[in-house]
Amino acid sequence: MNRLFDIQGIIFDFGGTLDTNGRHWSELLWEKYQECHVPVCKEAFKEAYVYGERALALKPLIKHGDGLYDVLRMKTRLQASYLLAHGFWDAASAKDFPERIADAAYAYACSMLQKSRLVVERLCSQHKLVLVSNFYGNIETILSDFGLLCFFEKVIESAVVGVRKPDPAIYQLGVEALACLPGNIAVVGDSFSKDMVPAKQLGCKTIWLRGIGWDEQTDDSLPDVVISSIEQLPGVIG
Comparing C-alpha atoms, which of 219, 135, 119, 220 is closest to residue 170? Predict the structure, then answer.
């Protein structure tokens, strides 16, 4: 495994990186659907997932003070409404499922965030940290809830700054916040197209947390380092 040297600052992604250790939220939620024996196929679920994500991006359904569980409950309710409206699920069997799925997904994310906090705390002692995330306007509330906010010099959130990944402009804001040359910055994220590609375009070093992702074309030769767990991160940054 490669090791990066002369790194002065680190830009972290949040969703899929710090909260799920490389698992795309669609895959994690689908796992919880199966565990809860929800009677829908994966293709129907993926349609519902995309519907919910678009609704959250277009409408102010999430409030500034909402925590991670509130986000997950909103996601699963939006998914359930889509599945019901399109006949993939009947109302009788859908009762209580959104909350059960949100409960299970939240428990998983909490366990992952505990591990991520230890990694972030360790790296914070030697590097400046910034977080860049496509989120809904409440990411600072979530970071505070899990004891992570204090480690980041700046939090750059798409709903606040008005630009979203994969636009490199949102990562440029992270570079400016760190006040380092791009070549001395490592970007850590789970999405190849939304994290690795735009960060590389800016000249940053890239660390791909490769897990179970959304369907996308990837190229293992583009990232500088590929890891399979957030806990490997301190060992690849000099």
Answer: 135
Q: Read out DSSP for 70-111?
A: HHHHHHHHHHHHHHHHTTSS-HHHHTTHHHHHHHHHHHHHHH
The per-residue pLDDT for range 43-73, each reduced to its tens digit, is: 999 999 999 999 998 899 999 999 999 999 9
Q: 189-235, pLDDT tens digit by residue? A: 999 999 999 999 999 999 999 988 777 788 889 999 999 999 999 99
Short-list 194, 189, 178, 173, CA closest to 224: 189
Burial class of residue 1, CB neighbours in 10 A (0-12, 13-18, 19+): exposed
**What does the chain come to in residues?**
238
Q: What is the pTM of this model?
A: 0.95
Q: Which of 191, 139, 143, 185 is nearest to 22 (CA)?
A: 191
- What Å distances lie between residue 232 and 3, 48, 85, 118, 146, CA to CA? 11, 34, 43, 12, 21
Measured distance CA(14)–CA(32) in Å, rounded: 20
CA distance 99 to 88: 18
Buried b (16+ CB within 10 A) or exposed e, 165-187: bbebebbbbbbebbebebebbbb
What contacts 173, CB < 8 A, 6 or more positions away?
132, 156, 161, 163
